[in-house]
Amino acid sequence: MTKRSSNSVLTLRAQQISESRREFNARGGKMDRCEQCLIAKHYCICDGVEQAECDAAVCMLMYHNESFKPSNTGRLIAEIVPDNHAFRWDRTEPDAKLLALLSDPQYQPMVIFPATDVEDATRVITDVQEQPNKRPLFIFLDGTWREAKKMIRKSPYLDSLPVLSITAEKLSDYRLRVAPHAHQLGTAEVAIMVLALAGEADAATKLEQHFMKFRDAYLLGKRNKGRPL
């Protein structure tokens, strides 16, 4: 059996916890949660999770405390895509490992963001045209809508990268948070569309299945305050 790759979002979360001087208290913080999926233990979805066959790589650039939030779906992407990376966003002092990843010649990095909010329209692409001997690296700005807009506008180390624009064809199924606009999608939903666009059918299908299980279990646990039915 192939050894599962580690979940970079959970690794980042553990690192931030070890470095934090004060406890981060999210809503529902007192609930007894699985340490892997962060869902109430009675509704854990860890069993049966299967990584996909995927030639693309993903990178979650996470706003401040995003990795702590049980409702975050970036870690679902890292569960499914073997080549996954996660970093805490910093405007002026980006992680040296992030900069090394972006300049790694084996990767073809591109930022995932709507064209309507990209100041330089020449950066925008609408499909994935793979370069020879390079692996697509999809960079997701993981945070609220306002935080994601801040990240793309205030990250000079991303300015030279193309921006892959995805337009949602259906309203979001992401009911864990309330977005300012109905067409705005959760990170995992965007990733499903990106992977499908890139021809990564196995990854797109498995991520969609994992996301739906996560969404339903999360809402069930929240509704019942973590108690079994």
Automatic annotation (TrEMBL):
SMART domains for this protein: DTW
Enzyme Commission number(s) from the entry: 2.5.1.25
Matching InterPro entries: DTW (IPR005636), DTWD2/TAPT (IPR039262)
UniProt keywords, alphabetically: S-adenosyl-L-methionine, Transferase, tRNA processing
Keyword hit for Coiled coil: no
Highest taxon above the source species: Bacteria
PANTHER family for the chain: TRNA-URIDINE AMINOCARBOXYPROPYLTRANSFERASE, TRNA-URIDINE AMINOCARBOXYPROPYLTRANSFERASE 2
Protein name: tRNA-uridine aminocarboxypropyltransferase
